[in-house]
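Notes from hallway chat w/ T.B., transcribed later so I don't forget. T.B. wanted the structure written out for a chain they're using in a teaching module, and asked if we could keep both sequence and structure tokens in one place. Agreed to drop them here.
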Amino acid sequence: MKVLIIEDEKSVVESLALAFKKENYEVISALDGREGKEKFISEKPDIVILDLMLPEIRGEELCRFIKSHSDTPIIVISAKDSEIDKVLALELGADDYLVKPFSIRELIIRMKKRLESTKKDKTDSHKKLYELGPFYLDEEKYEFKLENKLIELTPKEFSIMKMLLSKPKRVWTRRELTNQIWGYDYVSLKSIDVYIKRLREKLGRYGDLIKTVRGVGYKLEV
């Protein structure tokens, strides 16, 4: 497995690289955002460890670029510890967020879980096709259509829609949705509200079919 570390603190890069190599990961590193973007394109890593406060190209912009071109998992490591910063990074597509200083052992555990999850998604032979009312979702082709018109969804929006379509009228709690999509517990439950809002906007007049169950979560009624 190939890990790309994009971090401008050389001592942090060296510590992470040493630990990752002991776990038999191939390590590539970049000390600024521009170099990180170039190495992401050329090296095609399996996972990215990304600082937010980078010279040349900021981490937030780089996160958006990576997720718009791939489903490569991103773990953000940052000194920014406010809930707003975490939510913003997750909205941009980050899969996990660790605040500096952090345990390298914890980071490695999260990396392994994220890589296992990604591998499972790619090798899962039980891909499904969902058709309900105006909605059509093909998991294998990664397509979502509304009244036979192709709608572009982000990876997380696609996952939410798949969950809602998999069991119509079932109420999904915010915690269930966040755990399924991010795979860990600490992420703010407000994050899912942001994604639901954006999903409703993309669904236009059908957005109201995603119902809010106050104090609990969401369900799809068609």
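Follow-up for T.B.: Helices lie at 10-22, 33-43, 59-69, 83-91, 104-123, 155-166, 174-182, 190-203. Might be a good example for the class.
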